[in-house]
Write a structure and sequence with these properties.
This protein has 97 residues and is mainly α. It has three helices and two strands; from the N terminus they run ββααα. The chain has a two-stranded antiparallel sheet with strand order 1-2. Helix 1 packs across helix 2.
Length: 97
């Protein structure tokens, strides 16, 4: 539903149009009053927290998989990576045509 999604319209002032529900607006208004902050400031803080949270999840996945193949002797990692790079280069060449 459109009301529950953010629609980005950037102008010179980096404006953001936000389609929201009435309950979201009401609750954010209460929070803004309690914290003595503008509604826009609360929304910016929420977006910043969302970005950090999702960035950390990605970094956590990278850290968790680090060294995954270190004890495997059935895979030549250099050969495998070379093969992946070669396949990627072929795909990139095909897409550039």
């Amino acid at each position: 539903m459109l009301r529950n999604r953010l629609r980005y319209i950037f102008s010179n002032e980096n404006m953001l149009t936000w389609h929201h529900t009435e309950s979201q607006k009401e609750e954010l208004g209460k929070l803004a009053a309690q914290k003595g902050k503008a509604l826009a400031e609360l929304i910016r803080e929420a977006i910043d927290m969302y970005i950090v949270e999702n960035k950390l999840k990605t970094e956590d996945h990278i850290i968790e998989t680090s060294g995954l193949w270190k004890d495997r002797d059935d895979i030549d990692s250099e050969e495998y990576i070379t093969s992946l790079r070669h396949e990627l280069n072929l795909r990139l060449e095909d897409n550039s045509l």
